[in-house]
Amino acid sequence: MANTKFASRIGLILATAGSAVGLGNIWRFPTTTGENGGAAFILVYVACTLLLGLPGMMSEFVVGRNAGTNSMRAYIKAGNRKSWGAIGVLGMICSIIILGFYSVVAGWCVYYLLLAVSDNVLGDAAAISSNFDNLVNNPWIPSLMSIVFILLTHTIIIRGVRGGIEKASKLMMPMLFILLVVIIFASCSLPGAWRGVEFLFYPDFSKITGKVVFEALGQAFFSISLGTACLCTYAAYFDDKANLLRSSAQIAAIDCGVAVMAGLMIFPAAFSVGVQPDAGPNLIFLTLPNVFTQAFPHGVAYGVAILFFSLLTLAALTSTISMHEIGTSLLSEELKIKRWHAATCITVICCVVGILSALSMGPVPMGVMGKSLFSNFDALTSNILLPTGAFLTSLVVGWVMPREAVVRQLESYGQYKWMPWAVSVFYFLVRFVCPVGIALTFLNQIGVVAM
After folding, report:
1. Strand ranges (DSSP E) for 242-365?
2. Per 3-state DSSP, what percentage of the chain is helix, strand, and coil (rounded to 5)?
3. DSSP for 3-53?
4. Residue 241: how many CB atoms within 10 A of its CB?
5. In the chain, what's the furthest Cα-to-Cα distance?
6. With pLDDT > 90 as the criterion, what percentage of the chain qualifies?
7. 221, 441 in Cβ contact below 8 A?
8. How many whole angstroms separate alpha carbon 295 and alpha carbon 287?
9. CA triplet 262, 265, 266: central angle to 5 degrees?
10. Which of 165-174, 217-226, 232-241, 334-343 has the lowest mean pLDDT?
11. For 161, which DSSP code?
C-alpha cells in the first residue's frame, strides 16, 4: 500500500479535493452563510482559508509524503518519537466516528433520492414535513440507509488507490460539478432570483462581527478536513514531483468554489419563493423540497429534485471515501493484514456507530447531557478531536520536524525552488497563525471565548 501512488496529477487533485468537498459544502456552507450575512461572511471565509486552511493543508501533506506510509508512522517519522504517532491514531479514531454519524445524514440523502425518483419528495409543506418526521422516527430505515451508504464506500475502498479511490474520484467529481451547474442554471432562471445572487456577492461589511469571524474560521477549518489525517494519508500516495503548494491552492480553490456554487444553487431559488436565507439546517430536507414545488412546474421540479439529491449523495460519498481510507491504510500496514480485511474491520465499526447514531435521533433515545448520541459524536469530533489533531500537526511541522525535511517536501525534492522569504512566511503561518486560529476556534466552540 505504501508504494502505491496516484497515477495522474488530475487524479491526485480530484481525489484530495473530493475528501474536502462534501455535505459541509453543499449543506453546512449555505446554512452558515445564510445565518451570517451572505457575501461578507464569504469574504472572511476565503481569507480564513488562505491564512489557516492552506498552510494547515500543506502541513499534513508535508508529514504524509515525507513518510509515504500510514498516518501513525508518518507522525512518528515527522516527530522522531513514537509518541507523536498518537496524532495519526487520533485521526483514525476521529474519522471512524465522523464516518459513522456522517453516514446517517448521507443515508438520508440516499433515502430522499429514492423518494425523488418515485415522485414522493414534493408536495405541500405538511407532506414534506411528514416525510422527514417519518424518516428520523423510523427505527429501521435510517439505520438501513446508513449501512447502504457505508457499504457503497467500502466497495470503492477495497479496490485500492488507483482502481478505487482515484477512478471513483475522476468519475464523481466532474459529475458533481455538472449537477451543480445544471441546478444553478435552473435556480437563477427563476423570477426574483437576482436577490439571492446579490445576497451572495454584494457584501454588507457592517455584518462582519466577531461571531462571523469565528464562524468563518470554523467553516474553513472543517471544510477541508484538517485534523482527521485524511490529507496526511492521501499525501502518502503523492509522487515526489507533486507540487504541494500548487496542489493545496487548487484543492482549496475547488473547495471554496463548490461551496459558493452551492450557495448560488440554493439562495436564488429560496429568495424567489420568499424563503429566508437563515432557514437553518432544515434548509436541505424541509425547505428546498418546498422551494422546488413552488418554483417549478411539477415535471421540472421532479427532475430538479432527482438531480439535487443525486448531488448530495455524490458529495457525501467523495468525503466518506477519504475518511474510510485513513483507518484502512493504518490497519492493513500495522496489523499486516490484507487491505480487504482491514477495510471490512473499519466498515463494521462504522456501521455500528451509524446504527447507534441513527437510532439515537428518534426511536431509541441515547446520549448524554440531554443530547442524542448523534449530537454527542458531532460535538466530540468537531469541538475536540479535529482541533486537537490540527493543532498538534502545526506544532509538529512548525517546531519539531527538522527544517531541512520540511523544505525538502515543500520543494518536492528540489523540483520547485522556494525563496527564503517564502519559507519564512510558511513557518510564520504554521508556527503562529494556525495554532492561534485553531485555539481560538476551539475555545469559541466550547464557549470559553465568545464575541
Report:
1. none
2. 80, 0, 20
3. T---SSHHHHHHHHHHHH-SHIIIIIHHHHHHHTTTHHHHHHHHHHIIIII
4. 10
5. 63
6. 46
7. yes
8. 12
9. 90
10. 217-226
11. I
pLDDT at 421 (0 to 100): 96
Q: Cα(299)–Cα(293) distance, rounded to whole angstroms? A: 10
54-83 pLDDT, tens digit per residue, is 999 999 999 999 999 999 999 999 999 999
Tell me how long the chain is: 451
| H or E stretch covering 99 | helix 85-117
Query: Is pLDDT larger for residue 449 or for residue 190?
Result: 190
What is the C-alpha separation between 390 and 29, in angstroms, rounded? Answer: 20
414 pLDDT above the threshold of 90: yes
Listed in sequence order, the DSSP H helices in 273-338 are 287-295, 298-334
- Write out the three cell numbers for 343: 477495510
Residue with cell 513514537: 82
Helix axes 298-334, 9-20, angle to 10 degrees: 110
Closest CA to 37 of 207, 196, 260, 202: 207
CA distance linking residue 365 with residue 195, whole number of Å = 42
Residue 431 vs residues 151, 166, 176, 227, 426: alpha-carbon distances, Å: 40, 33, 36, 16, 8
Q: CA angle 33-36-40, nearest 5°?
A: 80
In one-letter notation, the amino acid at residue 50 is: L
What amino acid occupies position 144?
A: L
| C-alpha span between 24 and 47 (Å, rounded) | 18
Residue type, 267: F
Grid cell 493545496 in the structure block, residue: 248
Q: 369 exposed, middle or buried (CB, 10 Å; 0-12, 13-18, 19+)?
A: exposed
Cα 88 from Cα 104, distance rounded (Å) = 25
When computed from its CA atoms, the radius of gyration of the chain, rounded to whole angstroms, is: 21
Share of the chain above pLDDT 70, in %: 96
> CA distances (Å), 90 to each of 109, 122, 269, 332, 445, in order?
28, 42, 41, 17, 19
Task: Give the tens place of pLDDT for each residue, 87-96.
Answer: 999 999 999 9
| Euclidean distance between CA atoms 228 and 131, whole angstroms | 33
DSSP type of residue 83:
G
What are the pLDDT digits (tens) for 316-363? Answer: 898 899 999 999 999 999 999 999 999 999 999 999 999 999 988 876
Q: Angle at which helices 71-79 and 298-334 pack, to 10 degrees?
A: 60
Residue found by looking up cell 482541533 in the block: 387
For the cut 80, the answer to whether the pLDDT of residue 284 exceeds it is no
Q: Taking the mean position of all CA atoms in its chain, how far away is CA 16? A: 11
- Residue pair 299/50 in contact by the 8 Å Cβ criterion: no
Q: How far is CA 13 from CA 52, 166, 169, 274, 431, in A?
A: 20, 9, 9, 38, 26
